[in-house]
Automatic annotation (TrEMBL):
Primary residence: membrane
Gene Ontology CC annotations of this record: plasma membrane
Gene Ontology biological-process entries: transmembrane transport
SUPFAM superfamilies in the cross-refs: MetI-like
InterPro entries: MetI-like (IPR000515), MetI-like_sf (IPR035906)
Source organism (scientific name): Actinoplanes utahensis
Membrane topology label: Multi-pass membrane protein
Stretches that traverse the bilayer: 20-38, 77-101, 113-135, 147-169, 201-218, 255-273
Protein name, UniProt field: Sugar ABC transporter permease
PROSITE patterns in the cross-refs: ABC_TM1
Top-rank lineage group of the source organism: Bacteria
Location(s) in or outside the cell: Cell membrane
Stated family: Belongs to the binding-protein-dependent transport system permease family.
């Protein structure tokens, strides 16, 4: 009888261990975000002296101060980020889909070799390419030009994101080739097969590419810092650095307030397309 009770207690503990562990891990992950949200309502002095989540004295004026802290409204920075992220999403979806179709369906010499080279570029850290890219774009006259976003967007039109190409290639390899053959028998050219067969079926992979492109571009800081020098052209991540000046003075309250607002588009975008994101990953051969 005692052994039976001990076994039941062990089973109960095992059932409770998993949810408790998940709750603990979730608390560890969410604590910095919740603390930042609470700090956005603290005065600069309280941010440095009060490490608790809730402020002793609420300062909602941080949001108004942060929004109009510079000569340019922070809304302008949001619009710049939205433009860069939106154009990057469109460029990646179009170029990577075309490149993936070539690797997955078309036959040409050294196809496997070029695909391996493309996959090999995933091993290169992005910061290694910053200097040669800057020199090349400077030669083209794109750096400091009338439209300084060209170095951030134009390369995406050339399918430079190998991860997205690989994602779509894996998805297209799961599409039965009998559909291609049936379309060819009906008189479709390779372009017709792409338009009428591959493109309609590639929606999950395109959604995954769009979501990752938007999130990564919106949160990108270093590349945008390198190429953007005009205050009116700044994006939200770069503009957040303006709250800390060269003399060491900082407006941490308004900075946290604008940081919270900067996270909102990414959070809402992810929540809105979360189901499609999971579906796209599961149907592209990347599931574990």
């Amino acid at each position: 009888m005692g052994a039976l009770l001990g076994r039941r207690r062990l089973m109960t503990l095992q059932r409770l261990a998993r949810p408790l562990t998940l709750v603990l891990l979730s608390a560890v992950v969410l604590y910095p975000l919740v603390w930042m949200l609470g700090s956005s309502f603290k005065s600069p002095q309280e941010v440095l002296n009060n490490m608790s989540i809730l402020p002793n004295e609420w300062t909602p004026g941080n949001y108004a101060d942060g929004w109009s802290n510079f000569d340019v409204s922070f809304g302008r920075f949001f619009l710049n980020s939205a433009m860069v992220a939106g154009l990057t999403v469109v460029a990646n979806c179009i170029s990577c889909l075309l490149a993936a179709y070539a690797f997955a369906r078309l036959k040409f010499k050294l196809r496997g070799f070029w695909f391996a080279i493309m996959i090999g570029t995933l091993l290169l850290p992005g910061h290694v390419l910053i200097v040669p890219q800057f020199v090349m774009f400077k030669t083209f006259g794109w750096v400091g030009g009338d439209w300084p976003y060209a170095p951030l967007i134009v390369p995406q039109l050339l399918a430079t994101e190998a991860f997205f190409v690989f994602l779509m290639v894996q998805f297209m390899r799961g599409v039965p080739r009998e559909l291609d053959e049936a379309a060819t028998i009906d008189g479709c050219t390779p372009y017709g097969v792409f338009r009428h067969v591959i493109l309609p079926l590639s929606r999950p992979a395109l959604v995954s590419t769009a979501i990752f492109s938007f999130i990564w571009t919106w949160n990108d800081f270093f590349r945008q810092l390198v190429y953007l020098s005009d205050l009116e052209k700044y994006t939200a991540p770069v503009a957040l650095t303006l709250f800390i000046d060269s003399s060491g003075q900082s407006s941490v309250g308004p900075m946290f307030a604008m940081s919270v607002l900067s996270l909102a588009p990414v959070f809402l975008f992810f929540v809105a397309f979360q189901r499609m994101l999971v579906e796209g990953i599961n149907t592209s051969g990347l599931k574990g």
